[in-house]
Specification:
GO terms for molecular function: transmembrane transporter binding. By secondary structure, the protein is α+β, with helices and mostly antiparallel strands. The protein has one domain. It has 5 helices and 4 strands, in the order E-H-E-H-H-H-H-E-E. It has helices spanning 9-25, 45-53, 55-61, 64-70, 83-93, and strands at 2-7, 35-40, 102-109, 119-126. The strands form 2 sheets. A two-stranded parallel sheet has the order 1-2. The chain has a two-stranded antiparallel ribbon with strand order 3-4. The mean pLDDT is 79.
């Protein structure tokens, strides 16, 4: 099942958190059935990594018109190209996807004083090499 993720790093982080919790409750076979196609809106470190691996991805989502359109703080007066057309074109041709491991790290946070209890927080992440 391909899932299109159109957004920035915070959306991907939220989605990954849900994915990791869901995969913990299901059998491991489900993990191989889902594919995420990441479409960046604005600067996105994982998308930049994918662009370095896949020239077609980089040409579609990291060319100057795309970066200019989604790097603005205010919307442009007109759409310089068809965003939907560009996304659909990429999705139709996205036969191969990059396998990036999704995992979760446990952070232990200590209280400000020795009397306070520590807490644990689970943070999902995507494993990439820089």
């Amino acid at each position: 099942l391909p899932l299109l993720v159109l957004g920035g790093p915070s959306l991907l982080g939220t989605l990954l958190g849900c994915f990791v919790r869901l995969m913990g409750a299901l059998s491991p076979d489900w993990g191989g059935l889902l594919r995420f196609l990441l479409i960046p809106l604005g600067p996105h470190p994982v998308a930049q990594y994918l662009a370095s691996l896949d020239g077609r991805y980089g040409a579609t989502f990291f060319d100057p018109p795309w970066r200019e359109l989604f790097g603005r703080s205010d919307p442009p007066p007109s759409e310089p190209f068809s965003v939907v057309g560009r996304v659909l074109s990429y999705v139709k041709g996205a036969g191969a996807t990059q396998g990036l491991p999704v995992a979760e790290a446990m952070l232990t946070c200590r209280g400000k004083s020795p009397d306070e209890d520590s807490c644990q927080k689970f943070v999902p992440f995507i494993g990439v090499r820089g």
